[in-house]
Amino acid sequence: MNHVIIGAGAAGVAAARTLLKEQQEDTVVMISEDVEVYSRCMLHRFISGERSAESINFINDGLLTCPRFSWIKGKSVTGIDGKTKTVCAGDGELAKGDTIIIATGANSVTPPIGDLKTAANVYGLRHLRDARAISEAAKSAQRIAVIGAGLVGLDAVAGLLETGEKRGRPFDITVIEMAPTVLAINLDPRAAEAYQRLFEKAGVKFLLAKKVVNTKSAPGKDGVPLITSVELESGESVPCDMAVLAVGVRPAIGFLEGSGVKTGRAIVVDDKLQTSVPGIYACGDAAGLSGIWPNAQIQGQLVAKNIAGWNLVYEDRFAVKNTVNFFNLATLSVGRFNPQEGDEVLIREDRRNYRKIVLRDGIPAGVIYQGDIGGKGYWQHLIKNQIPIDKLGKSPWKVSYADFWNCENNGEFKWVV
Predict the structure, then answer these.
(1) What single string gives the DSSP state of each residue in 307-325?
(2) All domains of the chain in start order, with CATH
(3) What's the predicted TM-score (pTM) here?
């Protein structure tokens, strides 16, 4: 059998590895717009010059040299024939398989405001080509507007701060955010404020609870506009030589029109990650199940094993976990850390640490640990599985791995649920 994988990210690469292992006689063709494999979470380090493209390549085994594996690079898929399992680019056929795995990930969202969609000096940060473009533009820029203060936006700022430091002339960076705090999805206001203060100390200006409503532009090369300022609903104007957009992502699935594959916000899949067309599967951001790297890898592996006949069900759709680290300040947030009415909220803080536990009827709903986050991974298990801790007879601050592990007769440790 021949299997076609569209996408060279975490899910697609995991699927390829697993298929080649499980199906010893089969072949795999991977197709991607990208010409390199890279870790998305390292893109800001590429911008800063700390990492090269080679050093953020996460393939460190023999996948690329396997004789049963081939990679069609730099091709944008424009359509799929669901009946014949044929993948096309333009009017040409790229590959045909017995199965297709769609792992195309997501692309940055560009809102239809002013010239944001058309200007030559506006960049997202989702792909290595984006990071390259930002690095190149930063060589001649001084004033930079970053729209969005989530993880991606602050990643871009962190990379640019280091770039500015290395060139000996810091950028004038202004971050614009609709929410009243930075990292509003990832952290509560108290934990988020700590990062805002650190970025401000490094020279970054924040305009929070502000809405972008327009842009001003000047004519650029070949008539393509160049944004000169970002205009806010408040009447404020943010002059800029370039802008970075970090306002969200959307699954990259536009090529599926007419394929027979059912889509909504993302590709619709069953509990085995098969689409509405038998033999076509989806995983990672394209399937909209989880935006975190480990889950995407698990989904890719599960799809491959199901093609091999394992008949597995994907159950782990818990993705409410964030690890943030800027200026050597680490934070772990898991679950729903903004309390609802009736929740019990426990907070401890000192000069180096901020800790928060939200309990709902004795069950942890969410936690934040800022500062020392070592050995706190068990909270994800407790929150995901809604395990009560109020019957342990101890303070929630004293809870540890030991309270939820049991040694079986064979010596193997198991979670006690």
Answers:
(1) HTT-----------EEEEE
(2) 2-107+250-307 (3.50.50.60), 110-247 (3.50.50.60), 329-415 (3.30.390.30)
(3) 0.92
